[in-house]
Design goal:
Largest sheet: none
Mean pLDDT: 79
Distance between the termini: 132 Å
């Protein structure tokens, strides 16, 4: 009986040892999984607070609007002086007979438009120059004077399309093309462009009326 008890104890000891040895790998296998699972929680957490904006959005400056024409005292004075001399020319019958007086006056306004092109007077100077050349062409009957008038109006329209005188220049140019050049197709193009460019201008009614009077294309 004593021997049997010893054998039983030895058998139980071996069984416990065997169970301990077979269970150890499972415990060891679980430990790495627990350690490996920890980083996934950090990655899955949503960032707290408002989302940061991309640097490219923050650093991109807003587009700047085109600078409007500025008031320039020098341009104002130059225009006033040129206009005063122009009025004197119109009031002097003797000087009006000579073409060079008209040319000098018109070129003076063109120079103001070049020198002070960023001022409010530039477009006004071109419009006045166009009127001078137009009036001179009717007195001189020279095609180059008429061409100079059209050129002044065209430069105003292309250079200052939003100016209050742009539609006035378009109307004057269309009349020249229609009445003097006999070119209704060209006049139509000028009128249609002016109406599309500035549908609420102060000359729109006249532009539309002249356009409606043209022969069909």
């Amino acid at each position: 009986m004593l021997l049997q008890r010893k054998d039983m104890r030895r058998w139980w000891g071996q069984l416990v040892l065997a169970l301990a040895l077979t269970g150890a790998p499972a415990a060891l296998a679980k430990a790495p999984k627990a350690r490996a699972a920890a980083p996934s929680k950090v990655k899955a957490e949503a960032p707290k607070g408002p989302a940061a904006k991309p640097k490219s959005v923050e650093s991109s400056p807003a587009p700047k609007a085109a600078a409007p024409a500025k008031a320039d005292p020098k341009a104002d004075q130059a225009y006033a002086d040129a206009k005063a001399d122009y009025q004197k020319l119109k009031a002097d019958p003797q000087r009006r007979k000579f073409r060079h007086h008209w040319l000098n006056a018109a070129k003076r306004f063109e120079q103001i438009a070049r020198v002070y092109e960023k001022s409010e007077r530039a477009a006004e100077a071109l419009y006045t120059a166009g009127g001078l050349y137009d009036e001179l062409s009717r007195l001189s009957a020279q095609s180059e004077d008429q061409a100079a008038a059209k050129s002044a109006y065209e430069r105003l329209i292309s250079g200052w399309p939003a100016h209050r005188l742009a539609d006035d220049a378009a109307y004057a140019l269309a009349r020249l093309l229609l009445d003097r050049d006999g070119a209704p197709a060209q006049a139509r193009a000028v009128l249609e462009a002016a109406l599309a460019r500035s549908p609420v201008g102060d000359r729109q009614a006249e532009l539309a009326k002249l356009l409606g009077a043209l022969p069909p294309p």
